[in-house]
Specification:
The protein has 463 residues and is of the alpha/beta class. It is built from 14 helices and 15 strands.
C-alpha cells in the first residue's frame, strides 16, 4: 500500500534500521531526530503515518502527539509510538496522548507492517468520507445535525466463560452499554438486525483457536452485510505477534495483548466506537444529503453537478500530496445505433449494466460518474500513468468481452467503449487545475474514437 512515513527518533541506528525496513516495503520515507525537524517536515511534506520513538524526551513527545491530534491540518495523520515500555500503563499513556498504536522494542516486523497497513486503510477511508462531506457542504447542503448516539451495542465473542465474563464486566462499567456475550459461531447464525453491532470484542487468547476458526470469523464478519461496518477489537496472546498481524490483515480494526488491563482495553473500545459513529454520520451525509440532487436517477452514479466540485477537491489534494490523479473519459461506441435499433429501453439497460460493471470493478475511493448521455467519468486518486493505463484496459475488456443482456427475449448485445486517460502528475503546478486534466482526457477520448473505437488512448501529457 503506497504511503509516506515519517520516522522520529534521536538514535541514528534506530532511524536507519526503520528506514531500511520501510523502504523495502515500498513506502516513501523521511527521518529526523528532533521535534523541530519533524514539524518542518510535516509542514513541507505531510506524511500519512509517523513512527515516533517515545523512549526519550517522553513528555515532549507526548505533547507533540497531542498537538498533532488537535490541529485540523494533522489530525488525520496516523501515529505509532515505538520504544514504549511493554506495560499496559505505558501503552495507555501513549494512546491517551493521541497515538493510534504502541509497539515496544524489539518490534516484530510482521506486526509492524500489518499495523501500518491497517492504519493507512483507516486513514484513507476517513479522508475519503470527509472529502465527500466537504463536497456536500460546497454544494450547499446543510450539515446533518448530530443526533444522540445512545448506548453502543457491543458483543463479546469468546469460547471460555471466565474470560467472556471478565471482558463483559469491564466494558459494561466503562462504556455504560449493554454487552451481549456470544459464542463465536452464534453471531454468524443470524441474518437479521440482531446480528448488527457497533463493536465486536473477540477473545483470541487461545492460540490454537485463533489459528483456526477465529481467523475465519474476522473475515466473515467483515464480509457479511449485517456486520461488515462494525468495529472489531481482538484480544490476542501477548507472545504471538504473528497472530496479531494476521488478524489485522484479515480486517480487524485493533488488536490488544491479553496482558493489557481493563483500562487499556476500555480506551481502545471507546476509540473504536467513536470512529464507528463518525463513519456512520459521514455515510449518512453522503447517502441522505446528496442522493436526490447529485446522482443520476437511471444508473445511481454521481452526476455532473457532483463531479465538478469533487474533482476540484481531488485535484487540490493531489497537488498538495504530490500524488497523481488519473481521470478517464469513457464513451459507449455507436450508442445511437443501440437506441435506434433496439429502442431506448434497451439503451437504458446498457447504461445501467455498464454503470454496475464500472462500480463493481473499481476501488471504494475512486469516483465513478455519468456525465450525460453515454459518457462516463472515472477519477482514481494516487494512480500512476502505468496503473491508469492498466486500469483503463481492464475496464475496456470488462465491457467488450461479455455481451449485455437486453431482456424481453432479445439476443445479448456486444458493446464496446472507448477510453481517454489523463494523469495530473504530468502537469506542472500552474496547469494542474482539474479542467486541464479533463480537457486532456477528452482529447484522448477523441483520439481513441478516431483510431477505430474499442481503444484506450493516453493524453499527450500522460503518455
Amino acid at each position: 500500500m503506497p504511503g509516506r512515513i515519517l520516522i522520529i527518533d534521536t538514535v541514528a541506528t534506530n532511524r536507519i534500521v526503520l528506514k531500511v525496513k520501510m523502504l523495502a516495503a515500498q513506502f516513501a520515507v523521511d527521518a529526523c531526530a528532533t521535534q523541530a525537524e519533524a514539524i518542518d517536515i510535516i509542514t513541507a511534506n505531510r506524511p500519512d503515518l509517523i513512527l515516533m520513538n517515545l523512549s526519550d524526551a517522553v513528555e515532549a513527545k507526548h505533547r507533540l502527539c497531542r498537538d498533532l491530534r488537535r490541529s485540523p491540518q494533522t489530525a488525520t495523520i496516523s501515529i505509532i509510538a515505538v520504544g514504549v515500555a511493554d506495560t499496559s500503563q505505558a501503552r495507555f499513556a501513549a494512546l491517551d496522548a493521541g497515538a493510534d498504536e504502541v509497539l515496544p522494542h524489539p518490534m516484530n516486523d510482521a506486526l509492524l507492517l500489518a499495523r501500518i497497513r491497517s492504519l493507512l486503510r483507516v486513514r484513507s477511508t476517513n479522508e475519503e468520507l470527509q472529502l465527500r462531506e466537504g463536497t456536500s457542504r460546497a454544494l450547499g447542503f446543510e450539515e446533518r445535525k448530530a443526533a444522540f448516539d445512545g448506548a453502543a451495542k457491543i458483543a463479546v465473542l469468546s469460547i471460555g466463560a471466565p474470560k467472556k465474563r471478565n471482558l463483559a464486566s469491564g466494558l459494561r462499567q466503562a462504556l455504560r452499554s449493554k454487552i451481549h456475550c456470544l459464542h463465536p459461531s452464534d453471531v454468524l447464525k443470524s441474518d437479521d438486525a440482531s446480528a448488527t453491532h457497533d463493536l465486536f470484542v473477540i477473545d483470541a487468547t487461545r492460540a490454537e483457536e485463533g489459528q483456526g476458526g477465529l481467523f475465519g470469523l474476522v473475515s466473515d464478519l467483515r464480509a457479511r452485510m449485517q456486520t461488515r461496518l462494525a468495529m472489531q477489537l481482538v484480544v490476542v496472546p501477548d507472545n504471538r505477534p504473528e497472530i496479531a498481524a494476521m488478524f489485522l490483515d484479515l480486517g480487524a480494526d485493533d488488536v490488544v495483548p491479553d496482558t493489557s488491563d481493563a483500562t487499556e482495553i476500555n480506551l481502545r473500545a471507546k476509540r473504536l466506537i467513536t470512529r464507528k459513529r463518525q463513519h456512520d454520520r459521514l455515510r449518512d451525509t453522503v447517502r441522505n444529503g446528496l442522493n436526490a440532487a447529485v446522482t443520476d436517477p437511471l444508473t445511481g452514479l454521481f452526476n455532473r453537478r457532483y463531479v465538478e466540485p469533487h474533482l476540484a477537491r481531488l485535484a487540490e489534494q493531489s497537488r498538495k500530496s504530490g500524488r497523481e490523479l488519473a481521470v478517464m473519459m469513457i464513451d459507449i461506441d455507436h450508442f445511437k445505433a443501440v437506441n435506434d435499433t433496439h429502442g431506448h429501453a434497451a439503451g437504458d439497460k446498457v447504461l445501467v449494466e455498464l454503470a454496475d460493471r464500472l462500480r463493481q470493478n473499481l476501488r471504494a475511493i475512486d469516483l465513478v460518474a455519468r456525465m450525460g448521455g453515454e459518457e462516463f467519468l472515472v477519477a482514481m486518486p494516487g494512480t500512476s500513468v502505468t496503473d491508469a493505463r492498466l486500469a483503463a484496459d481492464r475496464l475496456r475488456a470488462l465491457v467488450n468481452t461479455t455481451p449485455f443482456d437486453l431482456g424481453d427475449n432479445q439476443p445479448a448485445l456486444k458493446i464496446t467503449v472507448s477510453v481517454g486517460v489523463a494523469v495530473s502528475g504530468q502537469f506542472n503546478a500552474e496547469t494542474a487545475a482539474i479542467n486541464k486534466i479533463c480537457d486532456q482526457a477528452d482529447k484522448a477520448l477523441y483520439a481513441a474514437k478516431s483510431a477505430g473505437r474499442d481503444q484506450v488512448a493516453m493524453g499527450k501529457s500522460a503518455a
